Amino acid sequence: MHISVHKKIRIGFFIAFTVIVGASILSYLIAKNLMHNAERLNHAVEVSKRLEQITKQLKDAEAAIRGYNITKEQKFLQPSMNERSVKIERDYRALRRITDEPTQIRNLDTLKRLLDVKYSQLAGGEQAGIKGSRISVGEGEVSMDKIDKKVSEMIKIEQAQLDEKSRLFQFFSSLWIPVVFIISLIAILIGVYAYVTLTREFRLQLHIEHRMKVYQRELQENIALLNKTNQELEQFAYVASHDLQEPLRKISTFSDRLQMKYRNELPDEAGQLIDRMVAAVSRMRVLINDLLIFSRAGRMMPENIAPVDMNALLQDVIGDLDVSLQEKKGSVLYDQLPVIEGNDTAFHQLFQNLLSNSIKFASPSKPLEVRIRRELLSGRETGVMKEDKWEDTFCRITIEDNGIGFDQAYAERIFLIFQRLHGVSEYKGTGIGLAICKKIVDAHHGHIAAFGQPGNGATFVIILPLRQLREE
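RE: above sequence
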């Protein structure tokens, strides 16, 4: 299965975009986890530090009480036990604010009760003096052991959390580098692939443009050569046809003199041969005239283009064919036609050939009826015009008769030169008339088509633009 370059590029960029988005999400999650672990590490360190600080202050207070009871020096009571208790309570409250784990909160509640007891002991020891020193020391040691045990328990919990967060921190830290490396590698590979693909596509585009320029130049040369050849062929056809007229005139003249001078002396068979020769000369003259018309039909010079009143032109054509129409008891009905830009002579030839075709192939069993309709429509609505002419206005002219018709299988063939559907003995003609019609319509940037059914008449559809482009 072949995948186009553009599709490969789109797929590559889609994969790169997906990788970048996925990497961004993964990086965000890893970074978030790292920050969370770092916060928990700081929290564990802070809790342990404050617990140790509270324990140290309690031990310092106990040591001060003992020193005072032994020496009676006031310096051991500076600062006082009440001030020391306030400072310890302040540290406890700070510790309470930063603690959010339920187990540790319960431990802090227990520690608070032990601290309250300890505060009372410190205050009592400060006032008792030497007399109650033994009791105060003993009770203080028991209370301090409980506090040390609770603090050690809380520090152990924080240390366990600290170890767990340290492992997670190390895991995500170690994961971060490979992830970044792999993502960067994928991005680099996709970038290299896109660069190579785009470079190949760019070079291919340059090659195609170069070949297109070469083909365009060759095409222009071929068109120029073809135009020159067509002109030479048209000139040759015109000269050849014109030169053929002279021998035909001599044959016709000599045959007429032969008939007039020796008609009665010639045998009947010789007279018949002369008649056949005269008929052949007549057909040859018609054929040469039609070839001359065909060679000129495609010539469209800008100076010959002008607005043509199609109604007046059609009346002239009907007038020229009046005798033939009367012979077929025919009638022509037509809608009001618009003014169309084009060659007046070519349009006259077009309608004369089409109406002559209807007269020639009229049904012998009924009077001929020809109906001409018209319809204005856009190029898009015609269904046959190129996209660059969709906005232009066209006139669709339909010529419909009730003649003998034809098989639709021959609808394209009848517009080819020298193509006949009937023998010369059945219907006179050269097989050039409809070819001339197509050449005229093509020269006016139009379209012609035929539709028929044996015994039910024929319909010719002509589509012509109302305006001709002068630059063409």
